[in-house]
Specification:
With about 425 residues, the protein is α+β, with helices and mostly antiparallel strands. The chain has two domains: about 375 residues, Metal-dependent hydrolases (TIM Barrel); about 40 residues, no CATH class. It is built from nine helices and 22 strands. The strands form six sheets. It has a nine-stranded mixed β-sheet, sandwiched between helices. Bound molecules: zinc ion (2 copies). The site of one zinc ion (ZN) has 4 residues, from loops.
Length: about 425
């Protein structure tokens, strides 16, 4: 195979082309979730129980991303609090999984049993296994701007990043990204920052996402049912936001497109309704299961998102201008692939959304149907789209006929999302 690249990113294309050629024979797909919560913040299970869940469900990497805290240091938690969140048998389940020796209990100062939460280092020591599983450090930087929730996940960071704040969503996004960048430089490591659930609290608009071009990643699917994935009557869906943001970036700002990430954002591990594990993940093509290799592949756009549909392969060949996708087929399941994008000569007009009193609502503006147009729809497990040169970009959404076994929104079927590709 010559080379396979999901995206010819402005920054990375040239540097990785030669290496991808050499590494292709050895690369494979690694499954991972970059957004999950534990008792360290507002999740309802022990961090080690959570890691164990992902290991047992055939994930190869995971980041524990609690709100403004990393799983370091001594943290004892009253059993009462833990049971309130996770249910009466939460400790029994923990002891059953790990044994009495592993579980640390003590009598709390104000009476009542306390349990010590295992740290990142302890979880890593217990679960990391070469080429099988890797735990990454993480944090959900949970900022707030004028009451709007602005959450960004930092993966592979060394030290806690405190929310920077800012007078606008854009300013706060930029400041948080710069803080992460500074740490990355200082520590000599790669830190991946992605913008979480833009429609949560209707906090982040497509124009915000377009304007902050330092951000290259955002959650196109987050399995938490409260993130307004489909939008509502007056506000666009997350996928529509993706297309609007990328059209503005590529059509007006000469900036690279945002890449999509799918995550669980799980808080509930005991069957309660709400965010649960296993709904959204990414598949990364890499030669090795090492933080550097995985982050490098993500940075190069060599990954796709899934809520159930898995791919055998995808590739974009700029020579033939063709995006090729091979879907892993499941018996009795049908697949519809939509190639979605915006043409270079799109209608740039937009108007604000108004409420009943004619006042502008703070949300993404209304754009023409030229943006995020379905260029082609194909069925089957091997699909292709040849770019004509008139497109700003083309991406693909694959929707299966299979109902999602644990949906986060009404009538959800399993899907996969392939990153935008384009010709230079
Ligand atoms: Zn969040
Ligand atoms: Zn979260």
């Amino acid at each position: 195979m010559k080379f396979q690249l999901s995206l010819l990113s402005f920054v990375f294309a040239i540097s990785i082309l030669s290496t991808i050629d050499a590494q292709e024979s050895k690369s494979r797909w690694y499954k991972g979730n970059l957004h999950t919560h534990s008792l360290w913040s507002d999740g309802n299970d022990f961090p080690d129980m959570i890691v164990r869940w992902y290991v047992n469900h055939d994930y190869q990497f995971l980041a524990l991303t609690d709100h403004n805290i990393m799983s370091v240091g001594q943290k004892w938690m009253p059993l009462k609090t833990i049971e309130k969140r996770g249910g009466k048998n939460v400790l029994d389940k923990y002891v059953k999984a790990f044994g009495d020796k592993w579980v640390e209990k003590r009598e709390g100062k104000s009476g009542g049993t306390e349990i010590r939460l295992k740290t990142f280092a302890e979880c890593r020591k217990r679960f990391d296994k070469t080429e099988s599983f890797m735990l990454l450090t993480g944090e959900e930087i949970s900022d707030s701007v004028g009451g709007l929730p602005l959450h960004l996940n930092a993966t592979n960071l060394k030290k806690l990043l405190r929310p920077t704040g800012g007078s606008t969503i854009r300013e706060a996004m930029t400041r948080n990204l710069r803080a992460a960048k500074e740490q990355a430089k200082k520590e000599g490591r790669e830190i991946l920052v992605h913008l979480n659930h833009p429609n949560f609290g209707w906090a982040v608009t497509a124009e915000d996402l377009a304007a902050v071009t330092e951000e290259r990643f955002f959650e196109v699917y987050n399995g938490h049912p409260g993130v307004n994935h489909l939008g509502d009557k007056i506000r666009p869906s997350v996928e529509r936001i993706w297309d609007i943001a990328n059209t503005i970036r590529m059509g007006q700002l000469d900036a690279p497109p945002l890449l999509g990430i799918a995550t669980d954002d799980c808080h509930n591990y005991h069957g309660k309704p709400g965010s649960q594990p296993g709904r959204g993940w990414i598949m990364v093509r890499s030669k090795q299961l090492k933080s550097k290799a995985i982050l490098r592949a993500i940075n190069a756009g060599d990954f796709y998102c899934s809520s159930g549909v898995e791919l055998e392969n995808f590739s974009f060949d700029p020579k033939s201008k063709t995006l090729t996708i091979e879907i892993k087929s499941e018996k009795g399941v049908e697949y519809k692939t939509e190639f979605i994008g915006t043409a270079k000569d799109y209608d740039k007009s937009s108007r604000p959304r108004l409420n009943n009193n004619g006042k502008t609502i703070r949300t993404t503006r209304m754009y023409s149907k030229d943006i995020g147009k379905v260029f082609a729809t194909q069925s089957g497990t091997k699909v292709q789209y040849q770019l004509t040169g008139k497109e700003l970009y083309v991406r693909a959404t694959i929707t299966s006929s299979k109902k999602h076994p644990n949906p986060s929104f009404k009538n959800q079927t399993e899907q996969a999302w392939v990153q935008p590709v384009f010709l230079k």
